[in-house]
Design brief:
Layout lengths: L3 H10 L1 E4 L5 H16 L11 E3 L10 E5 L7 H6 L2 H11 L3 E9 L9 E4 L12 E7 L10 E3 L12 E2 L2 E2 L16 E3 L6 E5 L4 E3 L10 E8 L11 H5 L2 E3 L26 H5 L17
Antiparallel strand pairs: 1-11, 2-3, 3-4, 4-13, 4-14, 5-12, 6-11, 6-13, 7-10, 7-12, 8-9
The structure holds 2-oxoglutaric acid.
Length: 293
Protein backbone atom coordinates (compact mmCIF):
# COMPACT_ATOMS: atom_id res chain seq x y z
CA UNK A 1 0.00 0.00 0.00
CA UNK A 2 2.92 2.35 0.58
CA UNK A 3 5.99 2.68 -1.61
CA UNK A 4 9.54 3.33 -0.42
CA UNK A 5 9.25 6.77 -2.06
CA UNK A 6 6.21 7.53 0.09
CA UNK A 7 8.00 6.31 3.23
CA UNK A 8 10.93 8.60 2.40
CA UNK A 9 8.49 11.46 1.74
CA UNK A 10 7.03 10.91 5.23
CA UNK A 11 10.51 10.93 6.80
CA UNK A 12 11.52 14.13 4.97
CA UNK A 13 8.26 16.08 5.26
CA UNK A 14 6.56 14.61 8.32
CA UNK A 15 3.40 13.54 6.52
CA UNK A 16 2.16 11.47 3.61
CA UNK A 17 -1.26 10.83 2.04
CA UNK A 18 -2.00 7.30 0.84
CA UNK A 19 -4.96 6.96 -1.53
CA UNK A 20 -7.76 4.39 -1.33
CA UNK A 21 -6.75 2.48 1.79
CA UNK A 22 -10.37 1.76 2.75
CA UNK A 23 -12.54 -0.11 0.28
CA UNK A 24 -16.08 1.05 -0.55
CA UNK A 25 -17.78 -1.58 1.66
CA UNK A 26 -15.80 -0.65 4.77
CA UNK A 27 -16.26 3.04 4.10
CA UNK A 28 -20.01 2.63 3.77
CA UNK A 29 -20.17 0.54 7.00
CA UNK A 30 -18.30 3.24 8.90
CA UNK A 31 -20.42 6.05 7.50
CA UNK A 32 -23.66 4.28 8.48
CA UNK A 33 -22.40 3.84 12.03
CA UNK A 34 -21.19 7.45 12.22
CA UNK A 35 -24.66 8.63 11.13
CA UNK A 36 -26.26 6.50 13.86
CA UNK A 37 -23.90 7.87 16.51
CA UNK A 38 -24.59 11.44 15.37
CA UNK A 39 -28.34 10.82 15.46
CA UNK A 40 -27.92 9.89 19.13
CA UNK A 41 -26.96 13.48 19.92
CA UNK A 42 -30.55 14.69 19.59
CA UNK A 43 -31.79 15.87 22.95
CA UNK A 44 -28.31 15.94 24.52
CA UNK A 45 -27.62 19.30 26.15
CA UNK A 46 -23.88 19.47 26.90
CA UNK A 47 -20.59 17.72 26.13
CA UNK A 48 -20.49 14.04 27.18
CA UNK A 49 -17.88 11.26 27.13
CA UNK A 50 -18.95 10.62 23.51
CA UNK A 51 -19.94 14.01 22.09
CA UNK A 52 -18.09 17.29 21.84
CA UNK A 53 -20.46 19.98 20.59
CA UNK A 54 -20.10 23.10 18.46
CA UNK A 55 -20.68 26.41 20.31
CA UNK A 56 -23.99 26.79 18.40
CA UNK A 57 -25.29 23.34 19.45
CA UNK A 58 -28.75 22.97 20.93
CA UNK A 59 -30.44 19.71 22.01
CA UNK A 60 -33.18 20.27 19.42
CA UNK A 61 -30.73 21.02 16.58
CA UNK A 62 -27.64 19.01 17.44
CA UNK A 63 -24.26 20.14 16.16
CA UNK A 64 -21.59 17.58 16.98
CA UNK A 65 -18.02 18.81 16.56
CA UNK A 66 -16.30 15.58 17.52
CA UNK A 67 -17.08 11.98 18.43
CA UNK A 68 -14.65 11.26 21.26
CA UNK A 69 -12.80 7.92 21.47
CA UNK A 70 -14.73 6.21 18.63
CA UNK A 71 -12.85 2.92 19.22
CA UNK A 72 -14.72 2.72 22.53
CA UNK A 73 -18.07 3.55 20.95
CA UNK A 74 -18.37 0.95 18.17
CA UNK A 75 -16.23 -2.10 17.15
CA UNK A 76 -16.07 -0.97 13.51
CA UNK A 77 -13.43 1.56 14.55
CA UNK A 78 -11.26 -1.26 15.93
CA UNK A 79 -11.82 -3.23 12.72
CA UNK A 80 -10.15 -0.46 10.71
CA UNK A 81 -6.99 -0.92 12.78
CA UNK A 82 -6.97 -4.63 11.97
CA UNK A 83 -6.91 -4.09 8.19
CA UNK A 84 -3.75 -5.73 6.83
CA UNK A 85 -3.26 -2.81 4.40
CA UNK A 86 -3.22 -0.31 7.26
CA UNK A 87 -1.02 -2.47 9.47
CA UNK A 88 1.43 -2.78 6.57
CA UNK A 89 1.69 1.01 6.35
CA UNK A 90 2.06 1.43 10.12
CA UNK A 91 4.81 -1.18 10.21
CA UNK A 92 6.73 0.68 7.51
CA UNK A 93 6.42 4.00 9.33
CA UNK A 94 6.72 2.93 12.98
CA UNK A 95 8.21 -0.57 13.01
CA UNK A 96 6.61 -3.93 13.81
CA UNK A 97 5.27 -3.10 17.28
CA UNK A 98 2.53 -0.47 17.30
CA UNK A 99 0.14 0.70 20.02
CA UNK A 100 -2.98 2.86 19.77
CA UNK A 101 -2.65 6.02 21.82
CA UNK A 102 -6.12 7.45 21.16
CA UNK A 103 -8.87 8.02 18.62
CA UNK A 104 -11.36 10.76 17.70
CA UNK A 105 -13.59 11.75 14.81
CA UNK A 106 -13.76 15.40 13.82
CA UNK A 107 -17.02 15.99 11.98
CA UNK A 108 -16.23 19.43 10.40
CA UNK A 109 -19.87 19.86 9.40
CA UNK A 110 -20.85 21.75 6.26
CA UNK A 111 -21.47 25.45 6.86
CA UNK A 112 -19.95 25.82 10.33
CA UNK A 113 -17.51 22.99 11.30
CA UNK A 114 -15.02 24.62 13.67
CA UNK A 115 -11.37 25.31 12.90
CA UNK A 116 -8.49 23.67 14.77
CA UNK A 117 -5.73 26.13 15.63
CA UNK A 118 -2.09 25.38 14.75
CA UNK A 119 -0.53 22.87 17.11
CA UNK A 120 1.77 19.87 17.46
CA UNK A 121 0.21 16.69 18.85
CA UNK A 122 3.49 16.18 20.71
CA UNK A 123 2.65 19.17 22.89
CA UNK A 124 -0.38 17.20 24.19
CA UNK A 125 1.30 13.83 24.70
CA UNK A 126 5.11 13.83 24.91
CA UNK A 127 6.68 10.36 25.02
CA UNK A 128 10.14 8.88 25.57
CA UNK A 129 10.67 8.91 21.78
CA UNK A 130 8.77 10.45 18.88
CA UNK A 131 8.07 7.42 16.70
CA UNK A 132 4.42 8.42 16.84
CA UNK A 133 1.97 9.53 14.18
CA UNK A 134 -1.69 10.24 13.63
CA UNK A 135 -3.71 8.60 10.87
CA UNK A 136 -6.45 10.74 9.34
CA UNK A 137 -9.03 8.53 7.64
CA UNK A 138 -10.96 10.65 5.14
CA UNK A 139 -14.61 9.63 5.39
CA UNK A 140 -15.55 12.24 2.77
CA UNK A 141 -13.80 13.58 -0.28
CA UNK A 142 -11.50 16.28 1.12
CA UNK A 143 -10.63 19.31 -0.99
CA UNK A 144 -9.45 22.84 -0.35
CA UNK A 145 -12.95 24.19 0.29
CA UNK A 146 -14.18 21.83 3.02
CA UNK A 147 -11.49 22.42 5.65
CA UNK A 148 -8.68 19.95 4.91
CA UNK A 149 -6.00 19.34 7.49
CA UNK A 150 -3.16 21.78 6.74
CA UNK A 151 0.43 20.82 7.55
CA UNK A 152 3.74 22.67 7.60
CA UNK A 153 6.20 20.25 5.95
CA UNK A 154 9.48 19.65 7.79
CA UNK A 155 8.37 21.10 11.13
CA UNK A 156 8.53 17.60 12.67
CA UNK A 157 12.28 18.13 12.86
CA UNK A 158 12.00 21.53 14.54
CA UNK A 159 11.37 22.71 18.08
CA UNK A 160 8.41 21.94 20.24
CA UNK A 161 6.58 25.25 20.30
CA UNK A 162 4.96 26.91 23.26
CA UNK A 163 1.32 25.85 23.55
CA UNK A 164 0.60 27.85 26.70
CA UNK A 165 -1.40 31.01 27.37
CA UNK A 166 -1.61 32.89 30.66
CA UNK A 167 0.60 30.30 32.34
CA UNK A 168 -1.49 27.26 31.40
CA UNK A 169 -1.48 24.76 28.55
CA UNK A 170 -4.02 25.78 25.90
CA UNK A 171 -3.27 23.32 23.06
CA UNK A 172 -2.56 26.03 20.48
CA UNK A 173 0.51 27.87 19.29
CA UNK A 174 0.38 31.65 19.27
CA UNK A 175 0.64 32.26 15.50
CA UNK A 176 2.04 35.75 16.06
CA UNK A 177 4.82 34.48 18.34
CA UNK A 178 6.39 31.71 16.23
CA UNK A 179 8.87 32.07 13.34
CA UNK A 180 6.76 30.03 10.93
CA UNK A 181 5.34 30.95 7.53
CA UNK A 182 1.83 29.56 7.62
CA UNK A 183 1.30 30.53 3.98
CA UNK A 184 3.58 27.56 3.15
CA UNK A 185 1.08 25.10 4.61
CA UNK A 186 0.07 22.15 2.44
CA UNK A 187 -3.45 20.66 2.43
CA UNK A 188 -3.96 16.94 2.98
CA UNK A 189 -6.63 16.31 0.37
CA UNK A 190 -7.93 13.11 -1.19
CA UNK A 191 -10.89 10.94 -2.03
CA UNK A 192 -12.95 9.33 0.73
CA UNK A 193 -11.11 6.21 1.88
CA UNK A 194 -7.69 7.83 1.60
CA UNK A 195 -5.58 8.31 4.72
CA UNK A 196 -3.06 10.90 5.83
CA UNK A 197 -0.24 10.00 8.22
CA UNK A 198 1.34 12.88 10.12
CA UNK A 199 4.26 12.86 12.52
CA UNK A 200 3.50 13.73 16.15
CA UNK A 201 5.75 16.82 16.02
CA UNK A 202 4.41 18.20 12.72
CA UNK A 203 2.71 21.61 12.98
CA UNK A 204 -0.85 21.37 11.64
CA UNK A 205 -4.35 22.83 11.91
CA UNK A 206 -7.46 23.39 9.80
CA UNK A 207 -9.86 26.18 8.90
CA UNK A 208 -13.58 26.40 9.53
CA UNK A 209 -15.66 24.53 6.96
CA UNK A 210 -17.83 27.19 5.34
CA UNK A 211 -18.56 25.03 2.29
CA UNK A 212 -21.72 23.01 1.65
CA UNK A 213 -19.87 19.67 2.04
CA UNK A 214 -19.01 18.04 5.36
CA UNK A 215 -15.48 16.79 6.04
CA UNK A 216 -15.47 13.93 8.51
CA UNK A 217 -11.96 12.87 9.54
CA UNK A 218 -11.42 9.79 11.70
CA UNK A 219 -8.14 10.11 13.59
CA UNK A 220 -6.06 7.40 15.22
CA UNK A 221 -2.92 8.27 17.18
CA UNK A 222 -0.40 5.43 16.97
CA UNK A 223 2.97 4.99 18.65
CA UNK A 224 5.88 2.59 18.47
CA UNK A 225 5.39 0.20 21.38
CA UNK A 226 8.61 1.38 23.03
CA UNK A 227 7.44 5.02 23.12
CA UNK A 228 6.10 5.48 26.64
CA UNK A 229 3.99 8.50 27.59
CA UNK A 230 5.46 11.10 29.93
CA UNK A 231 1.98 12.14 31.09
CA UNK A 232 -1.29 10.36 31.87
CA UNK A 233 0.02 6.82 32.15
CA UNK A 234 -2.85 4.83 33.65
CA UNK A 235 -2.01 1.14 34.06
CA UNK A 236 -0.02 -1.52 32.25
CA UNK A 237 -2.93 -3.80 31.41
CA UNK A 238 -4.88 -0.96 29.81
CA UNK A 239 -1.71 0.26 28.04
CA UNK A 240 -0.88 -3.13 26.56
CA UNK A 241 -4.54 -3.74 25.72
CA UNK A 242 -4.11 -1.05 23.07
CA UNK A 243 -1.51 -2.93 20.98
CA UNK A 244 -2.42 -2.82 17.27
CA UNK A 245 0.30 -5.17 16.06
CA UNK A 246 3.49 -6.79 17.33
CA UNK A 247 4.50 -7.06 20.98
CA UNK A 248 4.53 -4.66 23.92
CA UNK A 249 7.68 -4.01 25.97
CA UNK A 250 8.57 -2.77 29.45
CA UNK A 251 11.77 -1.24 28.10
CA UNK A 252 10.97 2.27 26.85
CA UNK A 253 13.38 3.67 24.26
CA UNK A 254 14.67 7.09 25.26
CA UNK A 255 15.84 9.46 22.56
CA UNK A 256 16.86 13.09 22.59
CA UNK A 257 13.57 14.86 21.89
CA UNK A 258 12.46 18.43 22.70
CA UNK A 259 9.70 18.22 25.30
CA UNK A 260 7.40 20.76 26.91
CA UNK A 261 4.94 19.39 29.40
CA UNK A 262 1.23 20.21 28.86
CA UNK A 263 1.07 21.50 32.42
CA UNK A 264 -0.54 23.10 34.28
CA UNK A 265 -3.47 21.50 32.46
CA UNK A 266 -5.73 23.48 30.14
CA UNK A 267 -8.37 25.63 31.78
CA UNK A 268 -11.11 24.21 29.55
CA UNK A 269 -11.07 20.42 29.35
CA UNK A 270 -12.82 17.89 27.12
CA UNK A 271 -11.28 18.33 23.67
CA UNK A 272 -8.69 20.28 21.72
CA UNK A 273 -11.47 22.69 20.75
CA UNK A 274 -12.22 23.39 24.40
CA UNK A 275 -8.51 23.64 25.30
CA UNK A 276 -7.96 26.16 22.50
CA UNK A 277 -10.72 28.52 23.66
CA UNK A 278 -8.10 29.89 26.09
CA UNK A 279 -5.56 30.66 23.31
CA UNK A 280 -4.09 34.16 23.42
CA UNK A 281 -4.59 34.75 19.70
CA UNK A 282 -6.12 32.84 16.82
CA UNK A 283 -5.09 32.28 13.21
CA UNK A 284 -8.28 30.86 11.68
CA UNK A 285 -11.33 33.07 11.50
CA UNK A 286 -14.77 31.90 12.54
CA UNK A 287 -17.82 33.18 10.73
CA UNK A 288 -21.27 33.27 12.28
CA UNK A 289 -22.60 29.72 12.26
CA UNK A 290 -24.70 29.25 9.17
CA UNK A 291 -27.20 26.50 8.49
CA UNK A 292 -26.25 23.36 6.65
CA UNK A 293 -27.70 23.29 3.15
O1 LIG B 1 -9.64 17.85 12.06
C1 LIG B 1 -8.63 18.48 11.72
O2 LIG B 1 -8.55 19.07 10.67
C2 LIG B 1 -7.41 18.60 12.60
C3 LIG B 1 -7.35 17.50 13.57
C4 LIG B 1 -6.40 17.72 14.69
O3 LIG B 1 -5.31 18.18 14.49
C5 LIG B 1 -6.80 17.34 16.02
O4 LIG B 1 -7.98 17.07 16.26
O5 LIG B 1 -5.91 17.29 16.90
Amino acid sequence: MITETQVQFYRDNGYVVVDNVLDAAMLSRIKTIVSEILAGAKGVATHTDIYDFEPSHTPERPRVRRIKKPTQVNPVFQDVLRLPALQGILTKLLGPNVRLHGSKLNTKSAGYGSPVEWHQDWAFYPHTNDDILAIGVMLDDVAMENGPMLVLPGTHRGPTYDHHANGRFCGAMNPAAVPLDFSKAVACTGKAGSMSFHHVRLVHGSAQNTSDRQRQLLLYECSAADAWPLVNFTNLEEFDGRMICGKPTVEPRLTSVPVRMPLPPALNQGSIYENQTAAASRYFSVTAATETV
